[in-house]
Design brief:
CATH architecture of the largest domain in chain B: 3-Layer(aba) Sandwich
Helix content of chain A: over 70%
Helix content of chain B: 40-55%
Oligomer: heterodimer
Strand content of chain A: under 5%
Largest interface: A-B, 35 and 31 residues
Number of strands of chain A: 0
Largest sheet of chain B: 4 strands, mixed
CATH architecture of chain A: Orthogonal Bundle
Structural class of chain B: alpha/beta
Radius of gyration of chain A: 23 Å
CATH topology of chain A: MetI-like fold
Shape of chain A: globular
Number of domains of chain B: 2
Distance between the termini of chain A: 35 Å
Mean pLDDT of chain A: 87
Largest sheet of chain A: none
Distance between the termini of chain B: 57 Å
Order of helices and strands of chain B: HEHEHEHHEEEHHHEHEEEHHHEHEHHH
CATH superfamily of chain A: MetI-like
Strand content of chain B: 5-15%
Structural class of chain A: mainly alpha
Number of helices of chain B: 16
CATH class of chain A: Mainly Alpha
Order of helices and strands of chain A: HHHHHHHHHHHHH
């Protein structure tokens, strides 16, 4: 049999496809990214450093890290248990649960913020009860965390469900016949199988938690140096005509995206090597 | 599973911490001023001046926190529980809503401080491109064919409502109150508006940064801010008549009482009437109420005939109902 090329397209079509992919990538990804960095450094290093060192910026960074530090572990736990439940067992209402997990993806972030205002706002269902006890949720840290948790709800679960579905429950069943307890099955069989998928889900969840704008904007109250997260701070600076400072803070978010991408490809490499090494 | 326990613990402690944080702690008094978009720069300076003065007199530390956004949106947030000690908004109507919907301050709040509770005023001016290429000198020029006018949406923006009423006031004078002619003028004016942004800052960006439109109906202080931020690109044209905009301030009495800040909140708003704060207002292109100080800024902020909302439009409640509520004149003249 003679050797034939795998693809059958003419060189012209190939060239066209590759060129258009490169052009689109440059136009929609590289240029905006470049613009963010160029704008941030337009007034020099000093302004860049100073705008990140300002009190309001520091507090925004702190608040963003704090919101992520609470919502990511919570959603990791939730994602793990939901994926475990949905893929290892068959029960009534399973399809309903699956679509509920996707709900935060389906609703607009503005709604995701407004539901908390409706529940915990001063005119909301629990508003008077909370006010009597002097507990603040909306326009304070707990509200920001609630909104972040809500919008980042599905990331880990969505990453794990297809993976665990594909793996099936054969190995767990084998472990049961060998007399392993529930916990040791989880730690020794399930978790090692899904750890890279889990890490990837956590990465995505974290990226969104730090970058969320809409839902957090609704519940934040925009108190400078107190309830502005990093994305909100960027908007405030932009509206104040402080373009360099706005883009300096935006580079932090862009940097986060780049780190996420880097870690993601590192993860893929590691998993590839592991698979090849065994 | 330790992670879980820790995060639950963390949330609980945050809730508790947060509920305590609001009270005065360690001799520090906190004040939250919820304001609208263009006042940011002014209040940064005014807060600094008041804090220094108050700390010296009282021997305690004072921290004034700021929140800015569209005036209507900010009022909504206060109603929903944003814990403002004082509000400093774009128009009395927005504070009326807080009083009506949430009962956080008395109905007669506007009589609690001097000059309708507005320590500074502003007006609406026309901003044109450098050299005024379309030759715009008054409201009548806005309806010429080929002139693009930028203004935010009166349904959502406080500033836009002032714009609308200022144009209305000119037409009322020009056509000696003939309502059909006034409506025709306003209709043609809005035919020349290519984009209606939701807020004043959005419109400023549309005009100054994206360079859309020939003339921008703007707060006077925003107009000077554009000159500062985009030097040499724009000119300010003072029309033959405009409107006296009175952005009011008020203590949100229920909140302040809860925080134990009633006194300092009132002192803060009274401070806005002092010579020092009036001077700062002038520097940030707001018109000082104090006549002697206003005189010092007359080069920048010239006298011109100004109609008022109370004398010429029967107060905000009536103006809102006649012009901007559903079925009002704006709905009649504007078809998107």
């Amino acid at each position: 049999m003679e050797n034939r090329p795998v693809t059958t397209e003419s060189p012209f079509v190939k060239g066209l496809l590759i060129t258009s992919a490169v052009v689109i990538l440059t136009l929609f990804l590289l240029m905006p990214l470049f613009a963010v960095f160029a704008e941030a450094f337009r007034r020099g290093w000093e302004v860049f450093i100073a705008s990140l060192h300002e009190d309001a910026a520091l507090s925004a960074i702190k608040l963003t890290l704090l919101a992520a530090a609470v919502s990511v572990p919570l959603n990791t736990l939730f994602g793990l248990s939901a994926a475990w439940l949905v893929t290892k067992f068959r029960f009534k209402g399973r399809a309903f649960l699956l679509s509920m997990i996707d709900l935060p993806f389906a609703v607009s972030p503005v709604i995701a913020g407004l539901v908390w205002v409706l529940m915990f706002g001063a005119q909301g269902w629990f508003g008077p009860w909370l006010a009597e006890r002097d507990i603040e949720i909306i326009f304070a840290l707990p509200g920001i965390i609630l909104a972040t948790v809500f919008v980042t709800f599905p990331f880990v679960a969505r990453e794990l469900i297809p993976l665990m579905e594909a793996q099936g429950s054969d190995q767990e069943e084998a472990a049961v016949t060998l007399g392993a307890s529930g916990w040791s099955i989880f730690w020794r069989v399930t978790l090692p199988n899904i750890k890279w998928g889990l890490l990837y889900g956590v990465l995505l969840c974290n990226a969104r938690a730090m970058g969320e704008f809409g839902a957090v904007s609704v519940v934040s109250g925009h108190i400078r140096g107190k309830t502005n997260t990093l994305p909100l701070h960027v908007e405030v600076l932009y509206n104040e005509y402080q373009f360099s400072a706005a883009f300096a803070c935006a580079t932090l978010l862009a940097f986060l995206a780049l780190v996420t991408l880097g870690l993601k490809s590192l993860l893929e490499q590691v998993t590839g090597q592991k698979a090849g090494g065994h | 599973m330790k992670i879980v326990n820790k995060s639950i613990l963390l949330i609980c402690s945050l809730l508790v911490l947060n509920s305590c944080g609001k009270k005065e702690s360690g001799g520090t008094v906190k004040l939250l001023n919820v304001s609208y978009d263009p006042t940011r720069e002014y209040y940064v300076d005014a807060n600094k001046a008041f804090t220094a003065e108050w700390e010296k007199a009282n021997g305690k530390k004072l921290v004034i926190e700021q929140s800015h956004g569209g005036s209507g949106k900010q009022a909504r947030s206060v109603i929903d529980g944003l814990d403002a000690d004082v509000v400093t908004l774009a128009l009395a109507g927005d504070i009326d809503v807080i009083s009506r919907e949430a009962d956080l301050l008395p109905k007669d709040w506007q009589s609690k401080l001097a000059d309708n509770s507005s320590p500074y005023t502003s007006t609406i001016v026309l901003v044109v491109r450098k050299g005024n290429p379309k030759g715009i000198s008054d409201w009548g020029d806005l309806v010429k064919p080929g002139v693009q006018v930028i203004t935010p949406n009166p349904k959502t923006s406080g500033g836009a409502r002032w714009n609308y009423l200022a144009a209305w006031a000119w037409a009322a004078k020009e056509y000696s109150g003939d309502e059909a002619k006034i409506l025709d003028y306003i209709t043609r004016l809005f035919k020349n508006v290519p984009v209606l942004d939701t807020g004043a800052r959005g419109s400023t960006t549309t005009f100054a940064q994206r360079e859309i439109g020939d003339v921008f109906l703007s707060w006077e202080n925003e107009a000077y801010l554009i000159e500062k931020e985009f030097p040499g690109k724009t000119e300010i044209v003072y029309p033959s008549i405009s409107i006296l905009a009175e952005p009011p301030v008020a203590v949100v009495e229920k909140n302040a009482k809860k925080h134990g800040t009633s006194e300092v909140a009132r002192a803060y708003l009274e401070f806005l009437y002092t010579e020092k704060a009036q001077e700062l207002a002038g520097k940030h292109f707001y018109r000082p109420r104090n006549a002697a100080i206003a005189k010092r800024f007359v080069d920048k902020l010239p006298q011109l005939p100004l109609v008022t909302i109370d004398a010429d439009f029967g107060g905000w409640e009536k103006a809102q109902r006649t012009h901007f509520d559903d079925g009002g004149t704006f709905d009649k003249i504007y078809q998107p």
